[in-house]
Amino acid sequence: MTNVTVCTVRLVSSIKDFRNRYLCYKKVPTTIMNKLPSTRRQKILDLAVQQDMVRVDELVKRFNVSAETIRRDLDGMASEGLLLRTHGGAMLQFESEAQRSYAQRELLRSDIKQRMAAVAIKQLPVSGSVLIDAGSTTTAIAERMPGNEHLNVVTNALTVVNALARNQARVQLLGGEIRWESFAAIGVRTILQLQELRFDVAFIGCNSMDANGFYTSTETEALTKAAMGKQARRVILVADGAKFRTPDFAQIGIWDAVHCLITDGPVPEDVSVVLNNKSVDVILA
Fold it and tell me: SUPFAM superfamilies of this UniProt entry (predicted)?
C-alpha cells in the first residue's frame, strides 16, 4: 500500500470523527424557550440544541408518549420557527444553509436528493473523467455510482471519497485547505491542481440560485467551484428547488457557465426565461 493510499484511507476513516467535532450548534434565547407550551417541548428543544437534530422514535422512548404526540410537538415547534421538520424527526432552524452542519444537510430533503442523484448518474459517460464537487447532494451521486474501471473520478470532498470507497472506484482526491463545514478541499492549491486537469463531466453544487447565477457562502469556495467548471466539457449543476432564494455572499458563476441543471423544481419564471435563453438543459427529478 502506497503512502498516498494510506493517507487517503486515514482521512476517509476519520470523517465521522471530523463530523462529530465540527457540528455547529445554535443557541436558542431563553426568552423563546420560556414561551414553549410544555415542559416536554422545552426538553425537546434542549436536545435539538445539544444534538443538532432529534428523531421521533427516540423521543417516543424518552418521554413515553405516542408517536402522534411527538409529531404534534415537532409540527408546533416548526410552525414557531424553532425547528425544521425532516423525515422522521426535526432539526434546528438556521437562518442560512451555510450555518448547518454537514450532518444536518444530509438529512434535509434527503428523499429529494436521492431522486436527483438517480437522475444525475444517467449523465455519466461510459468512460472518461468525472469531477464531483463537495456537498450532500453530490455525495448522494457518488453513493449511487457503480464501479467502473473506465471512469476516473476526481473530487475535492472527503465524503465523496468515502462513498466511492464502497465500490472501490478509481478516485483521486484533490488537496488544499479543508473546509470542515463541507469536508471539502478549497483554495489556491486546489485551484492550481484543477488547472492541470480536464473533465468530461463536472457535477457542481451551490447554496442558492437566482436569475443572475448561482452562489455559495465564501469567496474561496466560490473561486474553487468556478475553477471546476472551467475545466469541464459539460457542467451539471445539482441543486434542489429550495435553493431558488436570496443569493448567498459569493457568486460562483452565471448561467452561461452551466450546460445542465438538475433540480426538483419548480423553477421560478424569471430563472426559467434565463435558462431557456442560455440553452441550459433543465432536468426535473
Answer: NagB/RpiA/CoA transferase-like, Winged helix' DNA-binding domain
pLDDT in tens, 205-249: 999 999 999 999 999 999 999 999 999 999 999 999 888 988 999
CATH code of 3-16+110-284, in short, is 3.40.50.1360
pLDDT at 135 exceeding the cut of 80: yes
- Position 34 pLDDT exceeds 80: no
Site of grid cell 486546489: 190
Q: Using CA atoms, how far apart are residues 156 and 186, in angstroms rounded to an integer?
A: 7
Report residue 118 as a C-alpha cell.
438517480
CATH of 30-93, one of 1.10.3630.10, 1.10.630.10, 1.10.10.10, 1.10.1060.10: 1.10.10.10
If you write DSSP's letter for every residue of 91-138 in order, what string do you get?
Answer: EE--SSGGGS-HHHHHHTTHHHHHHHHHHHGGG--SSEEEEE-SSHHH
Strands across the sheet with 83-86, in order? 53-55, 89-92, 83-86
CA 236, CA 87: separation in Å to the nearest integer?
27
